[in-house]
Amino acid sequence: MPGNTSGNKGNSPSGWYPFGLNHVWLPYAQMKTASPPLAVIGTEGCRIRLADGRELIDGIASWWTACHGYNHPYIRAAVEAQLAQMPHVMFGGMVHEPALTLARRLAGLMAPADHDRVFFSDSGSVAVEVALKMAMQYWNNRGSRCRTRVLAFRNA
């Protein structure tokens, strides 16, 4: 586990939990009626360690763990190596080898063959926003009046 940066000694959530919880909106919860969330202090494989000493098996396979689990040695080493070289560089007028290599590999997997570009997005909502903008730009580039109506499901 990385070092504790909360100012508390050990894994006690006595400071970070009650004081931090007052400053976060939790997803998928009605904050006034939801049970307090569990205080997690560590992960390994498919297990989650709680501050009270209990250990859970992640049967939900949350957002990112479904494909790789927690703290897989190969993934951890690759992330550490990438962080040491270059943690993040945005594509605002710049590119880098890992992203271009990944883009080329992904483009090779796509069908039909004339789709040879990828767009990297950090979330589904950003991906949808960019896809809509790309569609509008497509019509603009064709010399057509830019289409601005978007079909959506009500209450979706």
Low-confidence stretches: 1-10
**What Rg is obtained from the alpha carbons, in whole angstroms?**
22 Å
The order of strands across the largest sheet is 1-2-3
What do we call the CATH homologous superfamily of the largest domain?
Aspartate Aminotransferase, domain 1
In terms of DSSP E residues, the strand content is: 5-15%
Ends apart, CA distance between termini: 39 Å
Number of domains: 2
Secondary-structure class: mainly alpha
Largest beta-sheet details: 3 strands, antiparallel
N-to-C SSE series?
HEEEHHHH
Tally of individual helices: 5
- How many E-type strands? 3
Overall geometry comes to: extended
Overall mean pLDDT score?
A: 82
Second rung of CATH, namely the architecture of the largest domain: Alpha-Beta Complex
Can you identify the CATH class of the largest domain? Answer: Alpha Beta
CATH topology of the largest domain: Aspartate Aminotransferase, domain 1
Range of helix content? 25-40%
Summarize the entry for a quick read.
Helix content is 35%, strand content 8%. With 156 residues, it is mostly helical. It folds into two domains: 16-80, Aspartate Aminotransferase, domain 1 (Alpha-Beta Complex); 87-141, no CATH class.
